[in-house]
Amino acid sequence: MTAATGPRELAHPPRDDIRLEGVLHALSDPMRLRVVRELAAADAEVPCSHVELPVSKSTTTHHFRVLRECGVIRQTYRGTAKMNGLRRDDLDALFPGLLDAVLAAAREQTARRTTP
């Protein structure tokens, strides 16, 4: 994990340190998968407040931290906002097709649940 260099910088793992088991663990939680789906749909960096989860603020913070520490997202401060974006380039380089497959499967699962 690269150390934060300043008080407002967050540590992120370098691309070569991102592990498949960590990514799969991060994506196995429904709330974290929801975050990833929303970030993928936004196709841009968004503040944490853009992603509404039905859990407490501290639990939301935990989910974002797990995603960051596993290398799924990058978080940066812009003023007082913590901006979030998928590390799609890194994930696609390390695990080609994985993110797209997970997102497609999540869409299909949602469609099955909402179709009578």
UniProtKB/TrEMBL annotation:
It comes from the Bacteria. CDD domains: HTH_ARSR. One of its GO terms (molecular function) is DNA binding. Residues 12-106 form the HTH arsR-type domain. Keywords: DNA-binding, Transcription, Transcription regulation. The keyword DNA-binding applies. SUPFAM superfamilies: Winged helix' DNA-binding domain. This is ArsR family transcriptional regulator. It comes from Streptomyces kanasensis. Coiled coil: none annotated.
